[in-house]
Amino acid sequence: MEIFGIPLQAFLGQLMLGLVNGSFYAMLSLGLAVIFGLLGIVNFAHGALYMIGAYVAWASLEYLGLNYWVALVVAPLVVGALGAVLERLLLKPLYRIDPIYGLLLTFGLALIAEGLFRNQFGVSGQQYPVPDALQGATNLGFMVLPNYRAWVVVASLGVCLTTWYLIEKTKLGATLRAGTENPLLVQAFGINVPVMVTLTYAGGAALAAIAGVLAAPVIQITPLMGSNLIIIVFAVVVIGGMGSILGSIITGVVLGLVEGLTKVFYPEASNIVVFVIMAIVLMVRPAGLFGKEAR
């Protein structure tokens, strides 16, 4: 059976690859949206935090013998703690001045992190094995689906939807949003707003680390893995709407699928289709598909 002249198995396989890529886009854009939506920081270091999360998983296995499941807990804690230190020492003094300084600072931090890891590990890349419980594949009849790729999709969407629910539907999320919109009022109720802001940035960094651990068995771990992906992720956030958490999740998954389908029908355009869509969306709706228009 064929679809538009493409064998069904090849079509569905490429669609599945697009869904996996979309899951990574959703995870990374979620962390960016959380940090920008709640703190107003354009965090260009997000790709570096994603890369560090993958390296923490690899180093945990290589030097400490900690398996993949432990790394899923350890890496977000380590990278989240690093994010908290960066926020307290470097980003906090920049909140009351032009946001461009925060963007330039985080861009510089990303370059520093990339340089340090290139000097330490080179650029050839490290391999991370698929965990034993997720090895193999499942025959769905119309295609053979690798178990680990199915896990990536399920885990990514689970983390994304849980984060969205916590921020948008719980008292904790309401407190976070109130603390960023009117910190003096929230502090009057006895809530330590500076600590809450630090934990929010650390949470966004931890989301990037989780994405890095999930990506480790799928791609080679290199110092460039974050910089190669972050531009696409920023495009996803812009299309979804800066600061829109649900918009980032939906847009990330959909654009991953669109990119996968483009590789089937017009491979030459697969590297630019996301940016073409971004340009069209910005012309029609500058705030993004799910963003709020400025008044």
CATH architecture: Orthogonal Bundle
Structural class: mainly alpha
Unreliable stretches covering 5 or more consecutive residues: none
The portion of residues assigned to helices is: over 70%
Q: State which percent range the strand residues make up.
A: under 5%
The rough form would be described as globular
CATH class bucket: Mainly Alpha
For the biggest sheet, the summary is: 2 strands, antiparallel
How many distinct beta strands?
A: 4
Rg is 19 Å
What is the name of the CATH topology?
Answer: ABC transporter involved in vitamin B12 uptake, BtuC
Strand order of the largest sheet: 1-2
Mean pLDDT across all residues, rounded? 85
- What letter string, H or E per element, gives the SSE order? EEHHHHEEHHHHHHH
Tally of helical runs: 11
Number of domains: 1
* Straight-line distance between termini: 52 Å
For this structure, the quaternary state is single chain
What do these coordinates show?
- The chain has helices at 8-39, 46-64, 68-91, 99-121, 147-169, 171-181, 183-188, 193-215, 225-240, 245-265, 273-284; strands spanning 2-3, 6-7, 137-139, 144-146.
- The chain is mainly alpha-helical.
- The protein has one domain (2-284): ABC transporter involved in vitamin B12 uptake, BtuC (Orthogonal Bundle).
- The strands form 2 sheets. A two-stranded antiparallel sheet has the order 1-2.
- Helix 1 runs antiparallel to helix 8 (193-215), helix 3 packs across helix 8 and helix 5 (147-169) packs across helix 6 (171-181).
- The chain is globular, with a radius of gyration of 19 Å.
- The relative contact order is 0.21.
